[in-house]
Fold:
Amino acid sequence: MTVTQDLSFFGMISNASLLVQLVMALLLLISAMSWTYIFRKMFTIRSAIARTTEFETVFWSGANLNNLYEDVTSGRRERNGQSGALERIFEAGMEEYRKARQTFSGKDIDVSALLDGARRAMRAAYQREMDALESHLAFLASVGSVSPYIGLFGTVWGIMNSFRGLANVQQATLASVAPGIAEALVATAIGLFAAIPAVVAFNRYSHDIDRLAIRFESFIEEFSNILNRQAR
Structure:
């Protein structure tokens, strides 16, 4: 590797070996994808929290369940299928409950069957919502754990090339060794640049999603109790 005294950031990148440059390019691509998912997930979770809070306020204000169900379904149609996660969980449970009530019309109502069907429908909707909220979190976790090692691989390879280049030098000095090592260390710096935001975002979003999951599960249990009282 040609020893250079150009220690600017772009100079070190341009003078690095081809493999180290490929590692840097891969890390920059990973970082760009990571930031894309970070911002996308941030807006998704914020919207989910806001819509959950809004629906809980309406639900616990004492609104009639049938009227609320009609409002949710009509509102979803007006928004081209867009609605909050908790609204979809409520809609799934209420729809199954209403269908079961029609099935038992004119017969003795099996309360346990009514509640089991509604609870299963809400649980299925809950799993779908959690899968959607947790999408791409695994990618952020992988970026946070793997990127430093990818950068370290580029650094080790660059340092090896730097020392190999000094094999034919009569007298190795710090001035001749430092540029090559600095170029190699840029790969580690880029790896950390990709990893740190991904780890922070993963931890933050996992916390927010866990809190939403608790709110969803609490709603399912409380709504099941309300349906139980109405069915009797």
Notes: Residues 9-231 form one domain.
